[in-house]
UniProtKB/TrEMBL annotation:
Cofactor section: Mn(2+)
SUPFAM superfamilies cross-referenced by the UniProt entry: Bacterial exopeptidase dimerisation domain, Zn-dependent exopeptidases
GO MF terms held by the record: hydrolase activity; metal ion binding
Binding-site residues, Mn(2+): C99, H101, E134, H160, H354
Coiled-coil region list: none
Organism (species): Ectorhizobium quercum
Protein's recorded name: Amidohydrolase
Cofactor binding, note field: The Mn(2+) ion enhances activity.
Source superkingdom: Bacteria
Length: 381
């Protein structure tokens, strides 16, 4: 079913409305209501709300039995102050759609309007709007919600816009599409002392000074050889910002990144071993906290073949590309379905995701929608 110009205009206006009123991870209540309201005229056969907090599933049922294919987009924006100046710039200080999730939702909305006019012949098409992608918490919460059983897919597809890639060109590959990552907070505790008597305390400063290069040295490999490992120290703190107290506590925050989940387990263990050794040497206690845990997103051959056929049928140029160092909270869908994500070029000079002047290119909406619609109908018609 081709997308009409009036539909695309309506979807574009809606995308800009979402852009102006962003919700960050865990707070997507208004955005979720917008999704439900905007798609209600398409007469979906079922709408499930509150999935994993604020997630939404919009279901279009065929007339014959068949598989379920889900298309997934993200609801959340970022805690970034927007510096761009479009008329639809964020009206919420310190929050903005600087990653393009508003555009991803608009693509699904265009798909929903087409499905409202023409259901698949068999099976079900499900539009999934996932919360909390940016923190890595949303997919697990959504899939773990008891309601999700009623929308569980056999195939799950997704996309991400990709500045730096020629406009409208697609990268798609089997295997790892996005690296795994997690944040590790290491807290080292000793004993404070008067600054004139530092020898009477236990300072974490020597341990932290040694750990910064030791953790960084855990990195190695490359995307090309499939064994990239990164350990990026993102924050260091020792004691209090004062001159009279020798520090007795400090912390390091490090982001670990690998191409596989198995490699993540290994580098996490190595990072903890480094910290324990430094703590034991200096008589400190050590505590570990994990944050923002992202599984590797690994594309299934069946789902990749479905997307490649759709790209060819729609005349969208594509190549294999490479795995993304950045993480994406899509990997968990591989536990329940054949899943794949592709990257849709936003232009070689377009501002990068998470840049304060980023804005999703509206002309990508019909391209992304056409690809998904072709894949849906190839599988279900």
């Amino acid at each position: 079913m081709p997308l009409t110009a009036p539909t695309l205009m309506e979807v574009t206006r809606w995308r800009r409305k979402l852009h102006a009123r962003p919700d960050i991870s865990g707070e997507e209540h208004e955005t979720a209501r917008e999704v439900v309201d905007f798609l209600s005229p398409t007469r979906p056969d079922r709408v499930i709300t509150g999935l994993g907090g604020t997630g939404v599933a919009v279901i279009y049922q065929g007339t014959e039995p068949g598989p379920t294919v889900a298309i997934r987009a993200e609801l959340d924006a970022l805690p970034i102050f927007e510096t761009g100046t479009p008329p639809w710039r964020s009206t919420v200080a310190g929050k903005g759609h600087m990653c393009g999730h508003d555009g991803h939702m608009a693509i699904l909305a265009a798909v929903g309007h087409a499905l409202g006019n023409r259901r698949p012949r068999r099976g079900r098409a499900v539009l999934l709007f996932q919360p909390a992608e940016e923190t890595g918490a949303g997919a697990a919460a959504m899939i773990g919600d008891g309601q999700f059983a009623d929308a569980r897919p056999d195939v799950t597809l997704s996309l991400h816009n990709m500045p730096g890639l020629p406009f409208g060109h697609v990268w798609l590959k089997e295997g790892t599409a996005n690296c795994a990552s997690q944040g590790l907070r290491i807290v080292l505790t000793g004993r404070t002392a008067h600054a004139s008597l530092p020898h009477t305390g236990l300072s974490p400063a020597p341990a932290i000074a040694d750990l910064v290069p030791a953790l960084t040295a855990l990195g190695g490999g490359s995307l090309e050889t499939g064994d990239l490992t990164l350990a990026t120290v993102t924050h260091v703190r020792i004691g209090e910002p004062t001159f009279g107290i020798a520090p007795g506590e400090g912390e390091i925050r490090v982001t670990l990144r690998t191409q596989t989940d198995a490699a993540m387990a290994a580098v996490r263990a190595a990072a903890e071993d480094c910290a324990r050794a430094a703590a034991q040497r200096d008589g400190l206690t050590v505590l570990f906290e994990e944050h923002d845990v992202f599984r590797a997103a690994v594309n299934h051959p069946q789902a990749v073949a479905l997307l490649r056929n759709a790209l060819d049928a729609e005349g969208v140029p594509h190549s294999e590309g490479e795995a993304m160092r950045a993480s994406e909270d899509f990997g968990r869908f591989a536990d329940i379905s054949a899943s794949a994500m592709f990257f849709l070029g936003a232009g070689e000079t377009h501002p990068a995701p998470h840049s304060p002047d980023y804005d999703f290119p509206d002309d990508l909406i019909p391209i992304g929608a056409r690809i998904f619609l072709r894949a849906i109908h190839d599988l279900l018609d």
